[in-house]
Amino acid sequence: MNFSNVSQAADFLNSKGFNQCENAIILGTGLGSLVKDVQIKASVSYASIPHFPESTVETHSGNLILGNIAGTDLIICQGRFHFYEGYSMEQVVFPVRVMKLLGVKNVLVSNAAGSINQNFKKGSLMLIKDHINLFPEHPLIGPNNERLGVRFPDMSSAYSKDFNKLILSACRKLNIQINEGVYASAQGPMLETPSEYRMLQKFGADAVGMSTIPEIIAAYHAGIKCCAISVLTDECNPDNLKPINIQEIISIALKAEQKLVQLVKYFFNSIA
Fold first, then answer.
1. What is the number of other CB atoms lying within 10 angstroms of the CB of residue 252?
2. Which of 134, 102, 229 is nearest to 177 (CA)?
3. What confidence tens digit (pLDDT) does each residue in 87-107 have?
């Protein structure tokens, strides 16, 4: 991990006013337009930030935004980087490590995922309580830099129980349907086979996607308090699989977006 590159990116963003912001959100597939509800103070393209990767996924806008939502300042990653795009794990989590140097203490990560638990319906939300990492590697491989975290982080409580309780309470007050579940992340970009879905069910996964876990590992390693929410965009019943396409996934994510906006506003206002 090249700490100098992380420092240079953080210094650049400090000069743009991104310093002293304790809260951040990483937006997943189909959720980038959440920024319409944000009062934008500053916005820079990923391409203009030193050493930042550039998103190659068309639904990820590729902007880092400093904004205010419900009276709370936060840094917004409008788009993320995926391992399947050909990026290394170091590149995938580069924004998280930059956030650490900018002073971020809390992060909410969102994604679009397929429901494996047949009681969890598409269009609903799933609050991640734990994960199963199926990537062939992870972002902590290699020499450890103590300025970012300890060598052997204990991942038994990567998802903040306090944050999860707050989100569940918010959903009850806002009348938003949500389930708690275990998120599995595979390499992608292909979706899973029926046998792979059966395997994931036996592993105890409730949903599967292609992101989030590397960012959570890097954030938790860096001492950032984490929570994560999946928008369930399809139902992955291995005995009754129907062909789906990315446009359908995006469409369902967009329909669920307003629920996520309400929840994000409540959440960040509550922890301010």
1. 19
2. 229
3. 999 999 999 999 999 999 999
* Percentage of the chain lying above the pLDDT 90 cut: 68
Q: Any idea how long the chain is?
A: 272
pLDDT digits (tens, 9 = 90+) for 13-42: 999 999 889 999 998 865 666 778 888 999
Q: What is the pLDDT of residues 214-233, one digit of tens each?
A: 999 999 999 999 999 999 99
The answer to whether the Cα torsion of 99, 137, 55, 209 is positive or negative is negative
Average pLDDT, the chain: 91
Give yes or no for a contact between 107 and 96, defined as CB atoms under 8 angstroms apart.
yes
CA atoms within 13 A on the CB side of 245: 1
Domain 3-271: homologous superfamily in CATH: Nucleoside phosphorylase domain (3.40.50.1580)
The dihedral over CA atoms of 209, 210, 213, 216, expressed in degrees to the nearest 10, equals: -100
Question: Cα separation of 216 and 108, whole Å?
Answer: 9
Cα separation of 59 and 138, whole Å? 24
Amino acid at 70: A
CA–CA separation, 247 and 135 (whole Å): 25
> Residue 113: enclosing H or E segment and its boundaries?
strand 106-115
Measured in whole angstroms, how far is the alpha carbon of residue 117 from the centre of its chain?
A: 20
